[in-house]
Amino acid sequence: MNLDRYKNLKRQNRETINLNPIQRGGVIPSEAKKAIYEFWDGYSICDFCHGRLDEIDNPPVRDFLNDLSEFLNMDIVRLTHGAREGKFIVMHALCKEGDYIVLDKNAHYTSYLAAERAKLNIAEVGYEKEYPIYKIDLERYKEVIDELEDKNKSIGLILLTHVDGNFGNLNDAKKVGKIAKSKGYPFLLNCAYTVGRMPVDGKKLKADFIVASGHKSMAASGPIGVLAFNEEFSEVIKTSKRYPIKEVEFLGCTSRGLPLITLMASFPYVVNRVKYWEDEIKKTRYVVDELEKIGFKQLGIKPKEHDLIKFETPILDEIAKRDKRKGYFFYDELKKRGITGIKPGVTKEVKMSVYGLEWEQVEYVVNAIKEIVNR
Amino acid sequence: MNLDRYKNLKRQNRETINLNPIQRGGVIPSEAKKAIYEFWDGYSICDFCHGRLDEIDNPPVRDFLNDLSEFLNMDIVRLTHGAREGKFIVMHALCKEGDYIVLDKNAHYTSYLAAERAKLNIAEVGYEKEYPIYKIDLERYKEVIDELEDKNKSIGLILLTHVDGNFGNLNDAKKVGKIAKSKGYPFLLNCAYTVGRMPVDGKKLKADFIVASGHKSMAASGPIGVLAFNEEFSEVIKTSKRYPIKEVEFLGCTSRGLPLITLMASFPYVVNRVKYWEDEIKKTRYVVDELEKIGFKQLGIKPKEHDLIKFETPILDEIAKRDKRKGYFFYDELKKRGITGIKPGVTKEVKMSVYGLEWEQVEYVVNAIKEIVNR
């Protein structure tokens, strides 16, 4: 065993501007860094635990979960290891084997995996229009539900991806929430890309359950997630017959460590930053406008309503044909300029986000890309 | 919302000698602290991911999992969010609803919870002798299995707690492994209190599956765990039909963040420290010898074979009756001396561990307790 390779672990891209959309919302502020110093030992969060993670008062986990409920406008909040783990918990607790889940065609792969693990069936709601918009046909939820009911299929859950991770399309969740309510099915909204980046009001969106991701969008070190639900569904979260204070679907405690500390320490920062969502949208639209001038083509809903941008980039494909680095030229040239997070070697389509960057940095990124393309 | 309470989160007990057995094995070394600086942003571990957490080369996750297999003498290793999550994965993947799990009466509450979540039944193996030893009657595994078979019950899994969290009793796992093998059932060994503290050789112990805990015993910030298994069981871990590179029971990726970085960075330290297990046992036995002189009585197997000590403490109970602080006097007096981790208010029984403390600190702890009792 060469144990030296675990000594001095370095992050190669630590000082770069990282455009990877899954990373922009997880950059932690200095408040969280300071808290890490205090709590980096395993189980340190449990110094003053009386048996339940969500009821620890020191550090203030109990208060935090209450404040988080208020922030999300939901009744009850629990911690999970991430959005995917939250989705599995809801499915496993609510549905019986073989039930159908109705979900959008832009759903994250982990929504499908959670359903597969819970031994459920899937019915998809497709697009209003495919290329280049890929907008989910929200009204179709009604029809898909009707079709399943006509076939006497048992429906366990309605799931919608608030913003998908492929096109960054924002869905009007309220529409689906209303359909679910009128049909009498519970409604789970996957907010992995929205809670912590933009304002999310669970009640207004008619969500019965919300899952969110700390490491993706709440300025927390992973892995940690949030599961919020309404009073009406409080009985879904059962406690153990043998250990009455322990919740079965959470195996007692979930995120018992550093990720939770960072989620708490970053909370004031996150509560504040979502107020500036309009400015983030401005930055995003600026990037689209400028890069479309040089031959990029934005896919998904236009104009952008979320910071995740997917571009079709025929111009990069063209350059790759004449560059000896092939498709890697773009990654390479960006890296030289201190910019990372664009998939190496890919030239047909690129995904990026400038969420949380200063305007100066956004301009720097845009100019760098223009320079690389126009060499 | 009073957001000020999340600013400057402090760990009150940061600078103390913490005797809580669940905390001693999770104290992280400076190597891990340095690595945290590099990777504290959410999803930073995924900078160079091609779709699978366990195959990331930078940082060296793939190498690490191979080295960990060697360290445990098992064929394959995967990451989980903790030992409990690993147990659920094994149960959920291996067993069908209603199956029986045969486990020891000292099993951790999360073994029961994992079984409850997986909708399984439990058959317990009890003690050779209850008070004061509480030693599991390992040969009884055979009888319990026979009894279930006689009743035509379907058995899904044999589980043994290598060292339990109540008495710190070490079980001779090989005995149970042999029984499981001869009967043809898979054998899961819960090593949450052993892997990372003492040498564990999976093959020698006849384990088919091993779960371990990073935050409990592998000097990692939680939550993170390890699931190791043998080639023979590799098909239990199925990949998704729709996403063939993603493993269903792991929902794609598990511990995608800081806890994994600390587990890797601490690994050389852990590999080294288990070599000094005999010295840890010496410290533990010294504590027992000295404290039995002042009226403490060690429960569980004697002499100690693990650092977790449970004492019956009639002497503390007596003092509590005449101290105006009642049962809190012990916690309070220890705290004054910079020692924490003993449950406040409890005087009939106390649990403690001096794992990883310097001999000088062990003596300091022993002398402090003597001083408090003999005031």
TrEMBL record, chains A, B:
Function: Converts O-phospho-L-seryl-tRNA(Cys) (Sep-tRNA(Cys)) to L-cysteinyl-tRNA(Cys) (Cys-tRNA(Cys)).
Aminoacyl-tRNA synthetase among keywords: no
Chain residues that bind pyridoxal 5'-phosphate: A83, R84, N190, S213, G214, H215
Sequence similarity: Belongs to the SepCysS family.
Lineage: Archaea, Methanobacteriati, Methanobacteriota, Methanomada group, Methanococci
Catalytic class of the enzyme: transferase
InterPro entries listed in its UniProt record: PyrdxlP-dep_Trfase, PyrdxlP-dep_Trfase_major, PyrdxlP-dep_Trfase_small, Sep_Cys-tRNA_synth_arc, SepSecS/SepCysS
Name of the protein this chain belongs to: O-phospho-L-seryl-tRNA:Cys-tRNA synthase
EC number per UniProt: 2.5.1.73
Catalyzed reaction equations: O-phospho-L-seryl-tRNA(Cys) + hydrogen sulfide + H(+) = L-cysteinyl-tRNA(Cys) + phosphate
Organism: Methanocaldococcus villosus KIN24-T80
